């Protein structure tokens, strides 16, 4: 089960920096993110969302490929595979882009907007869904960022450890949690 973590920052660019750091940690297999969204509460009071997954682009590409394949097959039936490929690609990309624009992946956008509106103007927050992580290593790496936890689905002990790391306070490991997932559910191997 994924864990939701929302951290607010006083700097409007800090959440972007944290997202870049989390992507690096993901490439190193220290964290497995299901979704991540940066919300910036601009000075004019508007909330800007930056999705980490571009559903419109991904869906358009996928739809274009499938449309091209099916268009070619239909075109073969009518002895004009090139025209079928072109029409299929255009129709597939268009329907894929529409499907991507209408779908919501991961964290609900309305939840993000509502919570981001409570931030002070000219600040930011990062919303992440974590499948699993190497807790000690990730907290060590994130300790250089100063932020405050505003919402999580973590246990109270794990939330306190995260807040301590983001505050620059050395936190002791939770009892029985030597490595692994945000709830300390991984067992140590002998």
Overview of the molecule:
Helix 2 runs antiparallel to helix 3. The protein starts with a strand and ends in a 23-residue tail after the last helix. The protein is an alpha+beta fold and 190 residues long. The chain has six helices and five strands. It has a five-stranded antiparallel beta sheet with strand order 3-2-4-1-5, sandwiched between helices. The longest helix is centred in the middle third of the chain and has 23 residues. The C terminus is likely disordered. A hairpin with a 5-residue loop joins strand 2 and strand 3.
Short description:
The chain has 190 residues and is an alpha+beta fold. The chain has helices at residues 14-27, 55-77, 81-102, 109-116, 135-142, 156-167, and strands at 3-9, 31-41, 47-51, 123-133, 148-152. The protein has a five-stranded antiparallel sheet, with helices on both faces.
What share of the residues lie within helices? 40-55%
Computed CA radius of gyration, to the nearest angstrom = 21 Å
**Continuous helix count:** 6
Strand order of the largest sheet: 3-2-4-1-5
Q: How much strand?
A: 15-25%
Shape: elongated
Largest sheet descriptor: 5 strands, antiparallel
Question: Could you tell me how far the N terminus lies from the C terminus, measured between alpha carbons in angstroms?
Answer: 26 Å
Structural class: alpha+beta
- The count of strands amounts to 5
Order of helices and strands: EHEEHHHEHEH
Q: Layout of helices and strands, plus pairs?
A:
Blueprint: E1 3-9, H1 14-27, E2 31-41, E3 47-51, H2 55-77, H3 81-102, H4 109-116, E4 123-133, H5 135-142, E5 148-152, H6 156-167
Antiparallel strand pairs: 1-4, 1-5, 2-3, 2-4
Helix pairs in contact: 2-3
